[in-house]
Structures are given as structure tokens and as C-alpha cells.
Amino acid sequence: MTIAATTDRNDVLPTAAMSETAPPRVAIEVVRPVVDQGRFAAKASVAEPVTVVADVFADGHERLAAAATFRQSVTGTEVTVPLVAVGNDRWSAQAVLDEVGPWTFTVVGWIDPWEYWRHSILARHEAGLDISVELGDGLGLLERAGQAGDPVERLRGADVSVALDDNLAATMASWASTLDGLAVSAAYPLHVARARAAHGAWYELFPRSLADGGETANPDTRSHGTLVDLVDRLDYVADLGFQVLYLPPIHPIGLTARKGPENSLVAGPHDPGSPWAIGGSAGGHTAIHPDLGTFGDFDRVVARADELGLEIALDLAFQCAPEHPWVTEHPDWFAHRSDGSIRTAENPPKRYEDIYPIDFTTDDWQALWAELANVVRCWVSHGVRIFRVDNPHTKPFAFWEWMIAEIRSETPDVIFLAEAFTRPRVAERLGKLGFDQSYGYFTWKREAWELTEYFGDMSKRTLDYLRTNVWPNTPDILTDQLQSGGRAMFEARLILASMISANWGVYGPAYELGESAAVRTPGEDYARSEKYEVRHWELTHPDSLAPLMRRLNIIRSHHPALHTDQYRVLHPCDDPGLFCFSKQNHDRSDTVIVIVNVAADMHRSGLVHLNLEALGLEADQPFDVEDLLADATYHWQGSDNYVSLDPHGPIAHILRVVR
Amino acid sequence: MTIAATTDRNDVLPTAAMSETAPPRVAIEVVRPVVDQGRFAAKASVAEPVTVVADVFADGHERLAAAATFRQSVTGTEVTVPLVAVGNDRWSAQAVLDEVGPWTFTVVGWIDPWEYWRHSILARHEAGLDISVELGDGLGLLERAGQAGDPVERLRGADVSVALDDNLAATMASWASTLDGLAVSAAYPLHVARARAAHGAWYELFPRSLADGGETANPDTRSHGTLVDLVDRLDYVADLGFQVLYLPPIHPIGLTARKGPENSLVAGPHDPGSPWAIGGSAGGHTAIHPDLGTFGDFDRVVARADELGLEIALDLAFQCAPEHPWVTEHPDWFAHRSDGSIRTAENPPKRYEDIYPIDFTTDDWQALWAELANVVRCWVSHGVRIFRVDNPHTKPFAFWEWMIAEIRSETPDVIFLAEAFTRPRVAERLGKLGFDQSYGYFTWKREAWELTEYFGDMSKRTLDYLRTNVWPNTPDILTDQLQSGGRAMFEARLILASMISANWGVYGPAYELGESAAVRTPGEDYARSEKYEVRHWELTHPDSLAPLMRRLNIIRSHHPALHTDQYRVLHPCDDPGLFCFSKQNHDRSDTVIVIVNVAADMHRSGLVHLNLEALGLEADQPFDVEDLLADATYHWQGSDNYVSLDPHGPIAHILRVVR
Questions:
Q1: Based on the domain organization, do B483 and B588 belong to the same domain?
Q2: Could you say which DSSP state residue A48 is in?
Q3: Does the residue A6 lie in any domain?
Q4: For a Cys-Cys bond, which of A395, B93, B100, B154 suits B159, CB 3.0-4.6 Å?
Q5: Distance of CA A180 to the CA centre of its chain
Q6: Is A22 touching B (CB cutoff 8 A)?
Q7: Cα–Cα distance, A387 to A250 (Å, whole number)
Q8: Cβ of A184 and B424 within 8 Å?
Q9: Given A535, A558, A581, which residue is the final one in a domain?
Q10: What domain range is A249 assigned to?
Q11: CB-count burial class (<10 Å; 0-12, 13-18, 19+) for A466
């Protein structure tokens, strides 16, 4: 086999040349958080301190000191924290980084001769051995460090207590860091995002379904909701406790091969089409669908949302309906086949004639990529700071990496959510190259053992670069669990999603109104999907789950433990239908334990085996847990505690540990 | 906290600049074997193929191809192997690298449009759909690739079978690798060692104990063995099946503070002293102890060993007795204290006055390091190619990295064994920076669960950079298991060591003669240790374990499965006193299963639960296992098989799987 283009490799030849200065004796290894050896930035946020970990050690019996220094690459702000030895040559510290943007950090380690001297003289003194040489050695160190006065005098007077002085030791450790031989790790990149990237509750709705009119009206003439209707609906969403309102594409929709109801191939004259078939005579990705309204209306949506503490997230779906302006203006932005036709989306043997994928590898790729970034800039200029990206896994990694860096360099607080329902390696790569969040596979993790596998080792492995935003449903995914599980299942999945992940979202009002009809089974497509028709929702229905949604979001807002996934721990349950996890914040001041009857099919009961060590609880100390859903308090002790949950009773406990 | 010297960091700034050419769409991640991101060379050898693994994937539904290219850094020899997809975007291959020395390798990945075309046209053809556009697309690809004649004619004739032609597909894949967009990983270093680094059986003896004279003679006048005696003893060692004979230091021994028997502080006039207190009037590290003989004698030892297929390994103990020539010639190579004295070895509150550690950080470090390398060169010039390094963890990492690279650049086949009985991170670092082998912690892993932990995940994690050489005893370590366990324990530990590790060693004749007396308990020091006195051993004793040693080494030489630790698998046993593992070679053509009664205290029996998948055995297919110790054959089936082992019967099974 012959492979081209391997000639420019940077061959690593063995170097037997001695360096000019003595190399550092301290080794620094296994630094974290580091993603692919620093090729990508690890994720951090202003919402919680970043924990840095490294193995720092030297030959021999030396005493070491170590620190981590963080530097904001744009402003130059520096933060240095001393690392503390936590055993087996591992060192760790937490650092508060309160400026959004790109940072780098290095770990440094050095030999601290004073620390070894303290240990040495105290050991010999306690053993009753001669310490005259040690006294001289200590004086020598103080002199080299430029110390004078009290400590020097005391040591001259053979006062061993100088070795007990921790302030002096800290001064001497700092001095030692100025000597030759400081070991410095590589500089590793870290992206510090704003708090909303780290935690938030998302709500998705279709603005065109917001008009009054009643569900029973003829769908062909059902009135089309507008952005003005949306302004009115914002109170409802904010009152439910959501922080982000995500809108499917609001752009003009193509007519050619427009899809009809139930994803049918032929649309009737009044069918509105899929919002993801972007582009028409009224414009493309930087235009608003005329039936929704104007940029003025959109600006009012953003302004009112802002008053309510809501952020508007828009959809970025980089694909075109056949009449998108780019198709005629830039035909070379689309791939052509041997018969001259534009290549359509395909999954052999199927083809999708209604959508043209963009050819990101066109010869004109630089102009194309620049124009796509301009789409984002357009909406940024209208106040949008959050984008949900449609199918990013079908576009080149390099495009996203460039585009996200480009936008962030102008507007550091922009957040991107990847709709990467794809293979694990691909989804993880998107997280690495800059997406703040990614939809996870939660939607399909149904059984307790599946949830355990998913939220256990798998999600721990990716913690440094993948923030998961979990959804119990989306307009594309109505799981068979929800189709057949009834109200208890809707409750269970709602509680699971909102409690287990710092970022969660839900597609409503379908969810709170218990919409469970699929167009066909087996299958996950909603019947009468809003993707293809205008719907009307009776928000005031007495069975609405809105009150539970609201309560869950309020619990979230009160509990910092629910604002991070870094300290999530799973706890085994005897009953395979029960699933238990706990969440804590970085200083363990807040602890929430959640137990859900995830089967939601029948009464489930049994012991929950808490990992007390992970929770920082003592086995012999009783503790109270307060149920935040039921307003009850239980008295627990030890790791094993009995739980009973029922589809007709409470389907879950959300327990605050009372300290 | 203020830390100096962090100004020269290579800050990683976000780059929003677009590259000149379109970046590759293929991502390459998680390449193995890679040690610390390529900072250190991974270990390989000519004894077995190296397995390369990488995640290779792209956006979209593209079909990919991938390969690994290896290049010998000195000779330029290149080896390229195609990678094969093994699932979940992971690719793998094995490559035979048959030149010792430094290599680098890169993984390359590229999009293979012909492969996608084959898939596409066949899928549509099978579905009975129109393929006229696909035929045109395929012709276009063949033209671009410069193909003519048969395939082009067939495709023009709408002959879809062109898509089934695997040879054509391979040609088209090679062509695709020449297109723009080839993704190339970093070049990762790999050190290919000779076979002896990968597997071997070591025997250690003290040459001064080889003289005739009888154990009952007065130790004060016991005759001192010589290198001439050693020439005679080589047949014994070779006949036991060992490949390496390791000698403790053979240099002149210091008189100042010389240790007497049992490590006593005062030596009598006839006490020979510890061979590790190196240096006297007759010279230092490049001299031979006059009582042992001359360089001429040493050369005869090496020559005779070579005839017998034995290699001589020498000890490198970089420390000095007070009368070592360097102490007077280079007083600045030793650290001085505030009272002007030379700093001795210490472990507060204790000090060891008999040995001066070398100050590797002396201002004159370059001359010192060069001189230490000259010590190695001296013995290399006398035919030595294997060095056992004493306490490398008390000398700077940078020294070893430099020294090993230096020596290897001159003599690539030199092998270094690290006596790094120290903390895990430190021992692992020594493996990373070039030591071919390291003593492991096997000696103290006694119970089945300890062995499971040690040879399970822990040793898997370090497989790319740490080759463990396991010893049931050393002159410094007589475990309490051996002190009290009797003959059965000696057998069990011998079988374990020789079978579980591709590299093993034993300190004899103390081991085969069952020497079990400690100088004190608790403690691990041999009574009447050869470190401090001349001994005499009755090799012909009827209870000698030499026949078992010989048989084990013969089994090793016959079984390639025992020449590597890469494919070692542990299998659970019901009885906590039983320990089971299997070994295979790289192509699974040889399988050896070993079950040992590691408690060796009483009859142990129960089920062994074989991991059949790891062994490549079918659950429903019976298989024969032949006991290589007992010359018996058993008929086994499925994962669970019954085993019974007794201190008085066979203490272990060594089973060859008959295919």
C-alpha cells in the first residue's frame, strides 16, 4: 500500500545532545482538564470553579511545591492557585475564573528545599540526635533566600521552632519557585463560558402554532401564529421557570417539493411546509417568514424576553430549499452530479429531493464559510446569543471549529448547542471543537441499567469537553415509552431530565399536554407533527403537567447542586425499576438525591444503597432528607435506605440533604 | 502566590484565521500506542507485531480508508499497513517492525469516494431504482483516477459488477489517498527493541560465592569465588534454561564504614563488604574487584556465556564508597553540607555514612553525566548489552533519558532494567523515559485478589511503556510468604513468576535451594545475606527446585504465548486461594492457561470461569487442554471448569489449549 503526503511529518529523532542548563528534576504528568493533549480547549465556566489536577513528582525524597497559573488570552488576567498534594503524587486545586473567553493554564512544580529541611531537622530533633549541621544548613537556606532578622536570629540561637513557622515556609516555597529548575507544563487551552452554557432550562415551541383559533378548525385555514403572538406567550414560558426559549427556523420556507401533513410528499395549497426547508422568494437564512412577521416584531420578542429573564435561541440549519437565493446566486455552493443536477440529500438507496445540502468543500469554500458566519452575525446583531445547530455532524468539523472561534472572537458570550444525534465519536468531536452543549442520548435511555451506563463511566469520560443537554422529547422524537407509558411516564421522564442534567430542555406544549400519538408504530414521529402543520394547544387543560414543570425548574433555581454535572454520583438500587443519583456543587454545600421509578409501570420499592463516601456523609451519623416534591422529611442513616414509589403515588423523591 | 518563570509559555490563542487550503474532513483521535502524547516513545520489539489503533472518522456518511506508516528514524526504512475498521469508528492493524531502534509512526485517513459509490449504486440496483446518474458518477471517478480499459468499458455497458471488484476498489482507495484532504496524525515515537527486551528469563548470582570450600568452613577464611569459577558455573545456569545471567556489582569495594555480616556497622578484617559500596584503591565503576579477577577473565565469561546462549547483565549502581577515585578527583560531584562534610545518603532521621550519593545537579553536571555514560561504554566495549540499574528513582529523570538515548544512539541493542522499587508514578516515569524493563511489585502481591488487581487494570494501563520483570525473590527481598510457606510456596511463586510475565528472574541458588531464613522477623532481609558475606551453595542437593525451574523455562521457550504480556487475561476462580490467567500470542495461535494454588497452604478446589470470548473459544465447542507440568490431558467445555490443586499434589496446572 502506498500513501501519499507523509513526507512533511515532523520526525522525532532521538536527541542525545545535552541541554545547556540542567533540566528540571520535577516531572508533571496527567494534567487535567486537558482535551486531546491540548489540541482542543477544555470547557469551564464562570458558574463554578475549575478543578485542576496533575501528577507532580521528582526523583529521590525531595519535598515539592506546585501551582497552576491561568491566563485570559485576550485581557491577560492571571489567576494562580497553589496545588495541594492529595496522595500518590497527585496534586489538585480549584480556581475561580470569572472572565468569559479563552484562557490557557500551566502547571508548575519545583523542589522546596526548606520543606525538606523542616522535615529533616524536626525528625532528628525528636529523635534526640545532633542537629548542629542541620542548623547550619537552615541558616544557609535563609541567607540564600535573602531572609534576615527574626528567623535568622532564632535559628542562630538553635531555636528549632523556626521550622514550625508556616508563614515562613510559604515565603520560602515562593522563593524556591524563583530558583533554576522550575518545571513548567505545556500551556493548555480552556474556554470559560458564561453561566448559561453551564446550566439552563430550555423550552421549544413553534411560533406558527400560537394563533388563536381552536384545534378543531380546518387545518387548511387555521390561522398562522406570528412573532406578535410569541411576545404574548413569553410570560407562560418564563412563568414555567425556563431560561431559554428555542425557536425552530423562522425563515421563509421553500415551495418546491414542500412536505405536506405527516411528512407526505405532496403539500396542499395551505400547507405551511417544514421550517427546516429554508429559503424562498422572501429570502433565506437572514430573512423572516412573512407570515411570522418582521425584524421589528422579532426585536420586540427579544426585548420582552429579556425583561422576563428569558433568552431566545434560534435554529441554525445550514441547508437550502431549491428556491433559496443561494441556489441561483451561488450554484457552485452545491454539489452537482454527472447529469448536471444538484446532488440532493441521500441515504442510499433513498434520496430527499426537497433539500439541497450545502457543499462545504466547494472550491469557493472560503466565501461560503464567510457567508454562513454572516448568517450568525445577522442574528447576533438582533440580540440572539444562543444557537441550536441542526445536524452539525453532516458538515465538516473544520467549519464549525473556525466558525465558532470566529464568532466568539467578536462576541464571546455566544452559545452553540449541537443537535448531534449521531455516532459517539462524531458527537464528542463536535463538543471538543467548540460546541458548548450537545443533545445527548438520554431520550433513548429508558431502563435504570441503561441510564446507569450512560450517566456513569461514559459521561464521566467526556466531562471535560461535552456538556449534555437532555430532552425527554423533541419534535422528531416521541419515544415509544411516552407513546405508551401514560402520565406517570411523562412525569418520570420530566423529573429525570430536569434533575440529572445541568442543562435540559423540552418540546412543548406537546409535552405538558401529554401528546402521545405517533404517526405510525414502531416509529418516533409525532402524529400531526408541527413540523408539517399548524397546531393549536389548549394550555389551560386541567391535566397539563405545567405545574410540575414549574416546580422542577424552581427546585433547580434554588439548588446550586443542580447547576453542574461534575459531581453527579449514581447509587445502586435493589429494584431494577428504580434509578438513584445525587448531585452536589463544587464545595459540597448543597446535596440533592433523586430517586425515580423509571419503569413507571407499577409499584416499585426496595433499598437504595447510597455511596456515602462520595456524598461526604458518615455511616454512623443519621441525617435528614427533605422531599422537595412532597414537602416531607425523612430520617435516614447509613448507606441503605428504603424507598417506595408508585405510578399513582409519588413517582419520584427529590431529596435535599439537611446538614 | 507568585510564581516565577511562566513568561515563556506558548500561549494558545484562538485562531479565527481561515487556512489557505480546505482543511481535511477526516479526524484522527486516540491513536495508540502513544505515551504522554508522544513526549515519550512507546515500547515495541522485533519479537512481535505492534498493534496500532486509532479513531478515524469524518462528518456525514462518507466512506473512509486509513493506514499507518512507520519509519525507522536512522535507516529510513518505511512500513505501511492499511487499517481495518473494527467498529464504533475505531480502526486497527498489526505491523511487523524488524529493525531495532527509534521509529516514528503516523496514522493517515482519507475519504474514499469510490467506496461510497460502490455502496450507493449497489443499494439502488438492488432496490430496482434508476442508476443512470450513478453510472455517470462512477465513470467520472474512474476518469479522474486515470483508469481506462476494462472497468471503464464495463461501466459504459451499465455492468454494475464493476462495483464488486475488490482489486479495483483497492486501487481506487490508493488513488483517493493522493487527493487533497488527507488527514495526517502527529508523528509518534516508538522504540523497537530487540527480542530480549520483550521476553527473557533472568538468573542472579554472586560470583564471589562460587569457590569450592564448603558451607561449614569458617566464613572469615572462606575462599572468594572468581570470574574463572563463574565460567565453570555458566553451564548450570544455561542448562536451567535462563537467557540472562545478572551479576551484582563486580567492582572494588570500599573499606571505610564497610558493612559486616548481617548488615552490621563494623566489618571484620576478612569481611568482603557489600558489592554496592563501589570504589577502592583498585578503582571505581570501570574496574574489576581484584579478588574476582581481571578484564581478561571477564571477557572469557562473556565469550563462554555467548556460546551457551546466555547474556551477562551487569549492575549499574551510581554511588560511591568514600574511597572511590571520584571522591578525590571530583569532590564537586558530591553535595557538601554547611560543616563542609560530604552529604551522605539519608532518610531522616537516619543517615547512611558508608555511601556517598552522587550529586547529579552539581554545577559540573555535564562532565559528571558524560563520565557516567563512559562507565556504560566501558562495559559495552567488553560485550555487555544488558544493565540492571540500581535505584534509578533516586537520580534525576533527565539523566536517564539522556544517558539511555546516548548509549542507544551508539549501540541500539543495549537493554536497561530499572530497579525502581518506588512509588508507582516514579516507576512508570522511568519506563516512559527509556528503561526497557522494570522490576514490578509482583514480589509483594501474595493473595489472588492482589494479583488480580496488579495484573488487571493497573498493568493494562501501563502496557505501552512499562515492561515488568517479575522476581519471586531478590537479595534484598525474602518475603514472609517464602519464609513460612515451605516448598509448596516456593513452587507456587516460581510457577507464577515464570508464567505470568514475559520477563522473569530469580535470585539463586538461594531460591532453588529453598533458602528461607530471615535475619529478623518481621523483615525481608536474608539471614547470612550474600550482600555481606561469601556463601557456598550445595547445588546437588536432592530437594533443589532446579528441575522445576528448568521445566518452566523449557515450557516458556516452546510457547510464544509466554513471550508477550499484551494478550494476558485474568479469569475469576471461586476459591479465593486459586488464581487463573491465560496468555496468548498476537495471532492467538498459541494459548496457555495457568491456574495456581497461590495460597499454597491447603487443598484448594472450585470452578474456574474462563473468559471464552477473550480466548476465542466457543461456548458450545469442547476443547482439550494438555497439562504441560503433569503430562495429562483434560477435556473441557464452556467457561466453567473444575480445578483441584494441593500443596502436596500439583500446586498448579499449566495448560496448553489444543486446537
A1: no
A2: B
A3: no
A4: B154
A5: 41
A6: yes
A7: 13
A8: no
A9: A558
A10: 197-332+359-558
A11: buried
Cell of A134: 542541620
ipTM score assigned to the predicted complex? 0.91
Q: A108: which chain B residues are within 8 Å (Cβ-Cβ)? A: 3, 5-6
Nearest CB neighbour to B14, from listed A11, A73, A124: A73
Q: What is the pLDDT of residues B383-423, one digit of tens each?
A: 999 999 999 999 999 999 999 999 999 999 999 999 999 99
- The reply to whether A146 falls in a domain is no
Nearest residue of chain B to residue A398 (CA atoms): B23
pLDDT-wise least confident of A97-101, A412-416, A492-496, A646-650: A646-650
> Would you call B366 an interface residue with chain A, using a CB distance cutoff of 8 Å?
yes
Report A:116-145 residues touching B (Cβ under 8 A).
Answer: 119-120, 123-124, 126-127, 129, 132-133, 135-137, 139-140
Residues A246 and A287 in one domain: yes
Q: What is the rounded CA–CA span in Å between residue A43 and residue A466?
A: 8
* Closest B-chain CA to A74: B13
pLDDT tens per residue across span B529-553: 999 999 999 999 999 999 999 999 9
The domain that contains B39 carries what CATH number?
Answer: 2.60.40.10
Q: What is the pLDDT of residues A274-333, one digit of tens each?
A: 999 999 999 999 999 999 999 999 999 999 999 999 999 999 999 999 999 999 999 999
pLDDT tens sequence across A337-382 = 888 889 887 777 776 778 899 999 999 999 999 999 999 999 999 9
Tell me the HSE value of A459 on the side-chain side, using a 13 A CA sphere: 25
Q: Look at residue B213 in the predicted model and tell me its pLDDT.
A: 60
Verify whether residue B538 is a known catalytic residue.
Answer: no
Do A1 and B108 lie within an 8 Å CB cutoff?
no
DSSP strand E in A187-318: where? 188-193, 200-204, 244-247, 311-316
CB contacts, 8 Å: B397 with chain A: 25, 27, 58-59
CATH (domain of B636): 2.60.40.1180
Q: Residue A520 burial (CB < 10 Å; 0-12/13-18/19+)?
A: exposed
Cβ of A88 within 8 Å of Cβ of B424? The answer is yes
Asked if residue B84 and residue B47 are part of one domain, the reply reads yes
Q: Are residues B503 and B526 in the same domain?
A: yes
Annotation says B419 is catalytic? yes
Which candidate in B3, B390, B394, B422 is best for mutational testing of the A interface (most A CBs within 10 A)? B3
**B545 and B618, same domain (yes or no):** no
Q: Is B363 left (phi over 0), alpha (psi -120 to 50) or beta?
A: alpha
Contact with chain A for residue B221, Cβ under 8 A: no
**B36–A25 CB contact, under 8 Å:** no
Q: Tell me if B10 is assigned to some domain.
A: no
- Tens of pLDDT, residue by residue over B185-197, are 999 999 999 999 9
Which of B72 and A351 is assigned the larger pLDDT? Answer: B72
Residues of chain B positioned with their CB less than 8 A from the CB of A141: none
Whether A544 and A636 map to the same domain: the answer is no
**Domain final residue pick, B536, B558, B580:** B558
Please tell me whether residues A483 and A599 are part of one structural domain.
Answer: no
Look at chain A and report how many structural domains it folds into. Answer: 3
Catalytic residue set of A: 390, 419
Nearest to A393 among B59, B106, B429 (CB): B59
Which candidate, B377, B365, B367, places its Cα nearest to that of B404? Answer: B377
Q: What nine digits make up the cell of B114? A: 469510490
pLDDT of B347 over the 80 cut: no
Q: Which helix (H) or strand (E) holds A636?
A: strand A632-636
Contacts of B60 in chain A (CB under 8 A): 393-395
Give, to the nearest 10 degrees, the angle between helix B295-307 and helix B227-239. Answer: 10
Asked if residue B65 lies in contact with residue B115, where contact means CB atoms within 8 angstroms, the answer is: yes
H or E element, residue A50: strand A50-58
We report the CATH number of the domain holding residue A366 as 3.20.20.80
Same domain, residue pair A171 and A249: no
Provide the whole-model pTM: 0.92
Condensed to tens digits (0 to 9), the pLDDT of residues B601-655 reads: 999 999 999 999 999 999 899 999 999 999 899 999 999 999 999 999 899 999 9
